[in-house]
Predict the structure.
Amino acid sequence: MTRRTTIALALAMAGLLCFGNAVYLYAKAALGPLLLDRAWSRTMRGERDAKPWRWADTTPLARLEFARGRRSYIVLSGASGRTMAWGPGHIDGTALPGEIGNCVISAHRDTHFSVLRDARVGDEIVVATRDGKRIRYRVCLVRVTNDRDRSLLAPSGERLLTLITCWPFDAIRPGGHGRYAVIARV
């Protein structure tokens, strides 16, 4: 085999690998929401711990509906990076969606919680729970803080919904220390 042929084959293989990876990512992005919707439907029919796929380490807890952005997202148990790749994640140790207390949910600013950019005081956010209840919250506060601010996780004696994402929305680098919080109450 000549050197040219070897280089051509190596480039062709690299191209196939890149193309294959792109197809995999596209298929995953298209299939994920469908599997989450199916798991949510099974949850609404009473199935406990309905996983979206067999090896998932998360389950649907609620559905968030944003009237202003006309968007809705399934809230998943846990807020790990792996979970938040698929949807908003409920922060362990805070009240469950719809319960009395401070329910804290986090998601990425450039995907599921990009809708928070347009949140305004008075906006309605509906939380549909696993038992079929629909709780209507009204945004009462929008604020920018930092990642060390633990007051956003503080317990509450009322139904409170705290939505957190990274700040600023247009940042080039992922993560950072800024946090954007939208707080709503019944």
